[in-house]
Amino acid sequence: MSVFVVSKSPALSGSVKISGAKNSVLPILAGCILTEEECIISSVPPLNDVMVMIDILKKLGATVNYDVKKEKISVCCKDIVSFEEESEDAGKLRASFIVMGALIGRIGKAKIPMPGGCPIGSRPVDLHLKGFQSMGVSIEQEKGFVFADGSSICGGKVYLDFPSVGATENIMLASALLEDTTVIENASAEPEICDLAKFLSKMGVKIQGAGTDTIKIQGAKKLSGVKHKVMPDRIEAGTFMVASAITGGDIILENVIAEHLKPVTAKLCESNVCVEDLGGNKIRVFVKDKLKPVNIKTMPFPGFPTDMQAQFMSLLAVISGTSTITETIFENRFIHAGEMVRMGADIRIDSRSAVIEGVEKLTGAEVRATDLRGGAGLILLGLVSEGETRISDIYNIERGYYNIEEKLKGLGALIERVD
Ligand code: EPZ
Questions:
Q1: Residue 17: in which H helix or E strand, if any?
Q2: Are 377 and 368 in contact (CB under 8 A)?
Q3: 309-316 and 372-382 are packed helices; what angle lies between their axes, rounded to 10 degrees?
Q4: Which of 230, 234, 128 is nearest to 173 (CA)?
Q5: pLDDT at residue 259, as a whole number
Q6: CA atoms 231, 233, 238, 243: torsion sign
């Protein structure tokens, strides 16, 4: 098993190119099921999660050609031969559940394994199922599978009790081939929803309100294949912004959308980090003054993203003073704190709140990447800890970060992958 060995590093400097967004690629790949024509998706990093989704599409009968070097995928779902996903797929990739909406739309039925929970929470899918049911889809659950019969699916009004990203995506996908109109209320407004809406609109779906809490979808009987460039990954970008801040560095990020980074930029600026929009999808992140503690509350977009919580905890662990983090999205998303405390961080957790006292000195330790973003947080902490930090279970990190060690090395970080 490989580990990352991270050592105390100099202030990061230089520029880094941000990859396409994992949480946008996955629903868009599922969306290819909606058409018999070829879709060409570009700016697709070869992440573990992307490879699993490609495998799922192939097992459903899709023809997929992935030019890894060019980060470009051709997907043709002319011959979808199955409406069933295999049980181990859900274990490998929770997001495989969004194939359900596309299969209901394309074939009129789907048999999908219930996705398990994960370290950050139980991750239920009740809102997805309730949404399908309010469109006339009948849902049965047995032996760990969900069977959906969408033979009498119709448009209508879907109210989401919580602005769930996945549920919003699933309903959009299930509505895309319906000629009547579906309205999603209390929808997720995350940027990834807008990217999926852009992709579906190119296919011929009429969508209004993506990026707001009410999305109106009018599908079409037949959708065409499209070319689509995936939006930049705002969470990877945020992670590198924090990498610059925590090391007192000065870096330029290329291929970013500043609008998507607003909540992260606001919190970094509040703690005295300088963020400059250079135009041309570039931003500069640098430190010139002493950083200040801040309080964070994770919220649906445009609030502070839960996917940046662990990375920010690393930064606050070394800013003198008291900071707090309230995690409102997932019920168990502080699991990385225990690993950080082993490196000398002063973090006290009480249910969904964390109190962080900045410390002068951290020491490297043998730690585990408990989950994708927690693992990224440990890398950041390793950059400013005395001695070596050895991070195991790095496959968790590589689910969502392509070539993270090379990108960090390019900025002067001392990080090695050791097999
Ligand atoms: C997406 O997960 C992202 N994953 C997550 O990113 C991200 O943290 C999350 O949205 C929130 O922004 C992908 O896009 C592949 P939700 P998703 O449905 O869709 C509860 C990462 O690090 N809920 O918005 O699963 C749920 O338990 C990952 O890249 C229900 O109760 O998130 C959670 O508490 C981690 N019932 C909250 O809503 C449901 O039916 C938010 O979940 C669905 C969700």
A1: strand 13-17
A2: no
A3: 20
A4: 128
A5: 97
A6: negative
- Is residue 243 lining ligand 1, measured as CB closer than 6 Å? no
Nearest protein Cα to ligand 1, atom 25: 166
CA distance 134 to 43: 35
Q: Give the CA dihedral 270, 272, 278, 279, nearest 10 degrees.
A: 0
Q: Tell me which DSSP letter residue 91 carries.
A: H
In ligand 1, the atom with minimum distance to the C-alpha of 372 is 22
**164 C-alpha to ligand 1 centroid (Å):** 6
- Tokens 């009480």 — which residue? 350
Q: How far apart are the C-alpha atoms of 396 and 260, rounded to whole Å? A: 24
pLDDT (0 to 100) of residue 87: 81
Q: What is the pLDDT of residues 266-285, one digit of tens each?
A: 999 999 999 999 999 999 99
pLDDT for 264 equals 98
Q: Which of 230, 281, 228 is nearest to 255 (CA)?
A: 281
Q: Give the separation between CA 194 and CA 28, rounded to whole angstroms.
A: 11
Residues 6+ apart with CB under 8 A from 85: 56, 59, 60, 96, 99, 110, 111, 112, 113
Gap between the Cα atoms of 28 and 201, Å rounded:
12
Rounded-to-integer distance, Cα 165 and Cα 197, Å: 13
144-193 pLDDT, tens per residue? 999 999 999 999 999 999 999 999 999 999 999 999 999 999 999 999 99
For ligand 1, is residue 162 a contact (CB within 6 Å)?
yes
For residue 95, what pLDDT is reported?
86
Whole-number Å distance, alpha carbon 123 to ligand 1 midpoint, is 7
The closest residue, in CA terms, to atom 39 on ligand 1 is: 125
In 3D space, the residue among 200, 193, 194, 195 whose CA is nearest the CA of residue 224 turns out to be 200
Instruction: Report the distance separating Cα 212 and Cα 191, nearest Å.
Output: 10
Please identify every stretch of the chain with a pLDDT value under 50, giving residue numbers as ranges. Answer: none
281 is in an annotated binding site: no
- Taking the C-alpha atoms of residue 267 and residue 119, their distance in angstroms, rounded to an integer, is 26
Write out the two tokens for 303: 């609030």
Q: How far does the centroid of ligand 1 lie from the alpha carbon of residue 382, in Å?
A: 28
126 annotated ligand-binding residue: yes
